[in-house]
Write a structure and sequence with these properties.
This protein has 211 residues and is mainly α. It has 2 domains: 63 residues, Winged helix-like DNA-binding domain superfamily/Winged helix DNA-binding domain (Arc Repressor Mutant, subunit A); 127 residues, GntR ligand-binding domain-like (Four Helix Bundle (Hemerythrin (Met), subunit A), Up-down Bundle). Helix content is 68%, strand content 4%. The protein is built from 9 helices and 2 strands. Helix 4 runs antiparallel to helix 9. The radius of gyration is 19 Å and the shape is elongated. Pfam families: FCD, GntR. Keywords: DNA-binding, Transcription, Transcription regulation. It comes from Microbacterium awajiense. This is HTH gntR-type domain-containing protein.
Length: 211
């Protein structure tokens, strides 16, 4: 039986806490693909009522992590190569646009944070440490979306973050050669530092195989 630590709702928005708890359980495999999700069972395991669980399952369905067949089942969605590819394509174009806006609009302190984050990506690439590249890239683009100060970008990131992480968990660099890849990341970093948003966006898409 899948187990969870009961939630402590004090000082939190309970619906968000349930959503995050179930989403993280899907991402880490505690709730594997195909597992049936029954709101009463989940509510008991989390120590909450069924209402926030139902709300969380609805949000997870919209994010693509849960699939529902009315009067038949609610279960964890299975990942496919097409879903992974489609998610990557969306994220690359979405975050490329976010970088363009961010570097053009950020104040000096915000730009310095973006450059420092880009430096971390360069160093991870130079070390050919794929998990570190992914983590550093997540940090860079969280900062980028925040720096846009665009409510639409922020909402998409907030609602889609769990799905992005889940379906990109097997991400591999499009440029396999560490030296060649690092050169492109260095060019990307320079474009960010120069506030050249158009070039930064183009390079980001190219680095990730969507030129």
């Amino acid at each position: 039986m899948t187990t969870f630590s009961p939630l402590d709702p004090r000082g939190t928005v309970l619906g968000d806490e349930v959503y995050l708890a179930l989403g993280e359980a899907i991402i880490d495999g505690t709730l594997p693909p195909g597992e049936r999700l029954r709101d009463q069972d989940l509510a008991q395991r989390l120590g909450v009522s069924r209402t926030p669980v139902r709300e969380a399952l609805q949000r997870l369905e919209r994010a693509g992590l849960v699939e529902v067949a009315p009067n038949r089942y609610t279960r964890v969605s299975a990942s496919t190569e097409k879903v992974q590819r489609d998610t990557l394509e969306f994220v690359v174009h979405f975050l490329g646009a976010a970088v363009k806006i961010a570097v053009e609009h950020a104040d000096d302190a915000g730009l310095a944070d973006l450059v420092a984050a880009a430096d971390d990506v360069v160093e991870a690439s130079r070390a050919d440490d794929v998990p570190a590249i992914f983590i550093a890239s997540e940090r860079l683009f969280d900062l980028s979306v925040i720096a846009t100060e665009n409510v639409a970008f922020l909402k998409i990131l907030r609602e889609g973050e769990l799905a992005f992480r889940h379906y990109l968990s097997r991400w591999q660099p499009a440029i396999q050669c560490p030296a060649s890849r690092t050169v492109e990341y260095e060019r990307f970093r320079e474009a960010v530092a120069d506030r050249d948003g158009a070039t930064a966006e183009r390079l980001f898409r190219t680095i990730n195989g969507f030129s």
